[in-house]
Amino acid sequence: MEEMTEKEQATLLIDEYTKLQRIKSATDKEKEIEYQLKTTKAKLEALGIIAENLDIE
């Protein structure tokens, strides 16, 4: 398994922080959360990860 560099880890954390800031400042928080879920699901599926397996029911 390939390890992430410190720069890659920092980039991922900046992206996560930005997403949380978008949710926090959104007028329609539910809509923003749905958008974030949709885009993250697309990224996971592009990597061959089935997102439904991660859903909390």
Q: Tell me, what's the shape?
A: flat
Number of helices: 2
Largest sheet: none
Strand content: under 5%
**Which regions contain 5 or more consecutive residues with pLDDT less than 50?**
none
Mean pLDDT: 92
Compressed to H and E, one letter per element, the order equals HH
Give the topology, please.
Layout: H1 6-25, H2 29-46
Helix pairs in contact: 1-2
Explain this structure.
The chain has 57 residues and is mainly α. It has helices at residues 6-25, 29-46. The longest helix is centred in the N-terminal third of the chain and has 20 residues, at 6-25. The chain is flat and about 40 Å long. It starts with 5 loop residues before the first helix and ends in an 11-residue tail after the last helix. The mean pLDDT is 92.
Précis, in short:
With 57 residues, this protein is mainly α. It has two helices and no strands. Helix content is 67%, strand content 0%.
Throw out a few tags for this protein:
57 residues; mainly alpha; 67% helix; flat
